[in-house]
Amino acid sequence: MQANKHNSTGQCERCGRLGAFTLATAFNEDGTFRHLCLCCDRIERTLHQRKLFADAPKTVVVWEEIAEPEVIEEVEVSAQMSLF
């Protein structure tokens, strides 16, 4: 079912505003639904949603000291005779 203004109008349990797109998107502690509007739903998700990679090890960048550049010796090329 696609939510629209006609089938999802209700009162938000977080902010108390009556408006469209109020859906049962969160759960209470006893297992019942919480009806939240879109703004409150976004806030609740960012506050309570578990981070996907929270336990992953953090990468550490280590910069190595750059040694002196290597000196490239130029090789002298002897002239060759072309065939054409």
Quick summary of this structure?
The chain is α+β, with helices and mostly antiparallel strands.
Defining key terms:
single chain, 84 residues, alpha+beta, two-stranded antiparallel ribbon, two-stranded antiparallel sheet, 4 strands
Helices and strands in order:
Blueprint: E1 10-11, E2 18-19, E3 23-27, E4 33-36, H1 38-48
Antiparallel strand pairs: 1-2, 3-4
Provide an overview of this structure.
The chain has 84 residues and is an alpha+beta fold. It has a domain at 10-48. The protein is 13% helix and 15% strand. It is built from one helix and four strands. Strands 1-2 form a two-stranded antiparallel sheet. A hairpin with a 6-residue loop joins β1 and β2 (18-19). The N and C termini lie far apart (79 Å).
**What portion of residues belong to β-strands?**
15-25%
Query: Roughly how many Å is the radius of gyration?
Result: 33 Å
Low-pLDDT residue spans: none
Question: Which class do the helix and strand fractions yield?
Answer: alpha+beta
Shape: elongated
Quick one: how many beta strands? 4
* Alpha-carbon distance between the two ends: 79 Å
Query: Which strand order do you get reading across the main beta sheet?
Result: 1-2
Count every helix, treating DSSP H or I runs of 4 or more residues as helices: 1
- Main sheet summary: 2 strands, antiparallel
The topology string of helices and strands comes to: EEEEH
Mean pLDDT: 77
| Helical coverage, percent range | 10-25%
